[in-house]
Amino acid sequence: MLPYPPCTKLRWGIVFVSCLLVISLASKLRTSGFYELETHKDSATGDAKFDEYPKNQSTSKLQIREKHYLDYLDRLKEYDQEKSKRLPDVINIGVAKCGTGFLRHIMRQHPQLKFPPQPEPHFFSISWDYGLDYYKRLLPMSTKREMVMEKSPSYFRYRFTPKRMKSVLPNLKLIAILCDPVNRTISDYVHETLLGNIPENSTFDSYIPKMIDATSRIKAYQDDDERVIRVLHMFFTKRDSHILSAALYYYHFKRWFQSYHPSQFFIIDGADLLTDPGQVVEELQDFLEIPKLIISEDFEKNDRGFYCFRPPHVVDEMGKRRIVPEQLSCAKRSKGRTRLGRWNYQPSAETINNLKKFFSPFNEKLYQLLGRRFKWE
């Protein structure tokens, strides 16, 4: 073979150096945040999935979210928009009085999540006999690219709910919010009192000892999980029986884990939802595998000590779209009666200590089961 002439060698050298320069420039652009949102195909469905934007010091979190949001809205136009009523992809199963309503209020602002107009369908616990067609009528219209989500706090404590749910929704994602059992008990007592389910002449200090006595069998059988689960089911014959028993989280999770794998659960510490809701919601969006369109910067404390939420909103100004925060949205004034000390009755220290002693061994069993501890006293 004849050797390359000098001019050919020179041309190949220039091409080689040029390629190196192009590769180097592309690499710098990628790490500097100039690239648009990257996507990849889901191996199972072939659908586009969202990747994180490259982050650096010059790209703020709000700018990253804005790109996510606008890109998601653009992609919606490419998808089939045929809507139908179908069963949920994710359900918040409780626990009552631990912030399920607050979380629903926030997550309804995510454009990919669709909620039923009825806040709590309670189908798998109370209305199961009505059939799936009845349940579907309660659910929202949605496309295949959207996620249907509902919340019904009664699901967590009803004995037969997990098996019913598993029979029709085996791949479901589940959310559970757990809060300090003592605070939850106080809050539920106030709630049931306002509903008229507790005698007017009753006080928290006189009522709780009776409830603790009524659960003496649970204490006696506390190491026999199946027996306790059966006893707990008997407590649901009275409207106010869940005030204490709903917070025996360990036994409820033992029952749920018989139907669903722990990896299908996103378990929230209610204390985190109160003190850092933005971080909780960001992690929840990761769990649901949806674009992170609600971020911690959307939250702000109000004069009552609760976090309020400023939903992101898209505006079009002279053909250029951008994200602006809407008016601050806060929970109802009725929320936080007990958490903020706005209840006109203060339980005695003795009653509180008795509740702590009652729940303590069950809390320890829960920590071992879940492999994590919660921020409870």
Describe this structure as you would to a colleague.
By secondary structure, this protein is of the alpha/beta class. It has one domain (84-370): P-loop containing nucleotide triphosphate hydrolases (Rossmann fold), CATH 3.40.50.300. 42% of the residues lie in helices and 13% in strands. It has 14 helices and 13 strands. It has helices at 6-32, 61-78, 100-107, 132-138, 161-168, 181-194, 204-214, 216-220, 225-234, 242-245, 249-256, 270-275, 277-288, 349-370, and strands at 39-41, 48-50, 84-85, 90-92, 113-114, 141-142, 147-151, 173-178, 265-269, 299-301, 307-309, 312-317, 320-325. The strands form five sheets. A five-stranded parallel sheet has the order 5-7-4-8-9. A two-stranded antiparallel ribbon has the order 1-2. β1 and β2 (48-50) form a beta hairpin. α9 crosses α11 and α11 (249-256) runs parallel beside α14. The chain is globular and about 70 Å long. Residues 1-58 have low confidence and may be disordered.
Helix amount: 40-55%
Please tell me what the overall shape is: globular
From the 3D coordinates, which CATH architecture would you assign?
Answer: 3-Layer(aba) Sandwich
Average of the residue pLDDT scores: 83
Q: Which strands sit side by side, in order, in the main sheet?
A: 5-7-4-8-9
The DSSP helix count reads: 14
Structural class: alpha/beta
Rg is 26 Å
What's the CATH first level? Alpha Beta
Number of DSSP-assigned strands? 13
Distance between the termini: 84 Å
Major sheet attributes: 5 strands, parallel
* Whole-number total of structural domains: 1
